Write the structure tokens for this entry.
Amino acid sequence: MVTAEKKIQVQDLRLRYGPKEVIHGISFDVYRHEILGIIGPSQSGKSSLLRCINRTIEFTPGAKVSGAVKVDGEDVRQVKDVFELRRKIGMVAPLPVGLPLSIYDNVAFAPRAAGAHKRSELDGVVEKCLRQAALWDEVKDRLDSLGTKLSGGQQQRLTIARALSHRPEILCLDEFSIAIDPVTTMRIEDVLKELRGELTIILVTNLVQQARRLANRTMFLWNGEIVELDRNEVVFSDTPASRKTYDYVMGIFG
Amino acid sequence: MTLCMVLPLLAIVTYLLFKAWPALSLNFILKNPIHGMREGGLWSPFLGTIYLVVISLLVSAPIGVLAAVYLNEYAKENWFTRIIHLAVMNLAGVPSIVHALFGLGAFVLFAHLGRSVLAASLTLAIMTLPVIIASTKEALASVPRAFREACWNVGATRWQTIRNIVLPNSLSGILTGVILQVSRAAGETAPVMFTGVAFFRLVQEGNLVGYSLFKPCMALSMHLFTISTQVPGVRPEVLYGTAVVLLSSVLLVNALSIVLRVYFRSRKKW
């Protein structure tokens, strides 16, 4: 199932905010078309890690990155067009963010930013992405109403639709279920299962069971270091390589 | 508490209106002062004030808004930008007479503009600029950072983010800040009296383009000062009438800003 092609390579990545180092030199690969789960308590550097991949970490004052993150073999800090890179990576934040635009414009925002303005083309993208995010049926009659006025769960699916709108090859989800109800969460999980095979997905989650349900491999990140990274069968077995992983997965600590 | 603030205002306005009543009519605004400014209307000073306010805001509003966009959206936090912040804050607190002296030195003398509408307007622009920067920055900062991050995540540039999300949603705050400076520019006497406002310099009644940019003009604030201290024997209703016209135009502009804010708030998008 897991092909050997490396979509993302992280090599000795270190991140410091001012004097405080939050990621202490981690290395791992993400394979093409797999779902990589990242679990770990808060403050363990999960979100910061994602921000290093699409370089939005640069918007945080005082953040200093060393080591390398390579997407398709190319160091992200040497890419010519950082906006191109970000379009290659769909990013879903923990809290749903509907932009203060209409539902249509929310999804059409990224294609427009990339220079697409033909209405027929945009119509197609908007419908496809909303369908992929399992939101189309609920909003198809009111695409002109404000994205910010949707419910939390709908906004989160809108965020996913927006993340898919620039045809990413990688989708990063950062604790997407933190602000939405279990039913919506299950719907989005179904969406992710469908997207597996088309996309490489990094799923950062606080819910251990979510990683267990969805991921091919799971990484346990703790205090900015990788405790364990292996196939799910190993990580969620009775005998993972690290005792700490076992305890965390079983809910004994963390 | 609110009553304590409103009562004095009402008292002042009522007193002024009462005293000014015999003079007030449309002609009071449309006619020029006559008989050595002791009688007649306010056409020239009224037009002059409009010139000064409009030109000064045409200069300070774009510069101020762009500066605030730079400071809030682009500038990195370092000693240089901290100094700029500090400078903006301090400039906003500088007394207007100091701005007047600066304008006299910089525009009238150094730039050889002479005492002119342009020099006075630029002085007013310098005076209003820091306040516009500060209020615009505040309006920009009120747009949640999460919106910006969502835009960056989908590959939008900083400018695309600013143009599509940040500016449209902070417009009400920006406009309110700018409009409030109208009243300040219209009311100040000191910055314009050395730099381009004359005691007495009439334009033809009804001629909207009577004043040249490079010549002095009259202004309401200065006119009020002149007729109340420098000219003996002015009829009191003319005096009070001038005050009423100045006050009510300022109130009108401020009311406009309130209407704008209410309108935008009703369309608030989150």
Notes: The longest helix of chain A spans residues 119-132. Chain A has one domain: 6-249. Chain A touches chain B at residues 54, 56, 59, 61, 83-87, 90-91, 93, 95, 97-101, 109-110, 113-114, 146, 148, 159, 162-163, 165-166 (CB under 8 Å).
